[in-house]
Design a protein that fits this description.
The protein is built from eleven helices and seven strands. It is of the alpha/beta class and 213 residues long. Helix 10 links the parallel strand 6 and strand 7. The radius of gyration is 18 Å and the shape is globular.
């Protein structure tokens, strides 16, 4: 699928807001493969159940780990929840080409920011163990903002924290619903994921007059 262009903004884009999963990072082999050592062919079923449980925690409501622990017991998994969480939720591989693009944008004078749906534990791991707080000018985690994508309020609050009008921000996400939420909040937004290739992303940025080379 080709990257989807957002509407052209009347103001020049001076900031780029990146989603995380599918744009900056991936789970090697995918979530189902990561969960299979614990649940085998029930991994998919289990993950879809627990992702529903997780939804309120993405907006900062509640703690996901006790919910996950309960679900694991229901499925007969006796391993400590901390071990399962580490082996699955911390199984993150950074996409080098995406971070190289971030450095190019920074050298070219753009603000580079993170806008991601995460509950507090995975978000905390990204901030500290992966060093994201040192990489981005502004880090917008849904659990901290109190809103989760695709709610336009997420993007309104992100723009407030970045300190600019939403129209000065270009948002990149692998979910079309999140892209639509960003556009509803007044951002320029494009739909892209790593499978489309970085040449495609650079072309889209250039079409929005973003100096990405």
């Amino acid at each position: 699928m080709d990257a989807v262009l957002g509407p052209q903004s009347t103001a020049p884009v001076r900031h780029v807001l990146f989603d995380a999963d599918g744009v900056l990072q991936v789970v090697p082999g995918g979530w189902y493969v990561a969960m299979e050592p614990y649940l085998g062919d029930r991994a998919r079923e289990f993950l879809h159940k627990t992702w529903k449980d997780e939804l309120p925690t993405l907006a900062g409501e509640g703690d996901y780990l006790p919910m996950l622990a309960t679900a694991l017991l229901e499925y007969g998994v006796t391993a400590p929840v901390e071990d399962v969480y580490r082996d699955v939720w911390h199984r993150i591989e950074l996409i080098e080409e995406s971070f190289a693009l971030i450095e190019t944008l920074r050298r070219n004078g753009y603000g580079v920011h993170l806008g991601t749906n995460q509950e507090q534990h995975r978000g905390g791991h990204m901030r500290s163990a992966l060093g994201y707080d040192a990489i981005f000018d502004t880090s917008c985690y849904s659990y901290d903002l109190g809103f989760a994508k695709p709610d336009p309020a997420f993007f309104t609050e992100a723009a407030r924290r970045i300190g600019v009008d939403p129209g000065a921000i270009l948002f990149i996400d692998d979910s079309i619903k999140n892209v639509e939420g960003a556009r509803d909040a007044g951002m320029v937004a494009v739909h892209w994921d790593v499978d489309q290739g970085h040449d495609c992303l650079i072309d889209v940025l250039v079409e929005h007059d973003v100096a990405a080379c």
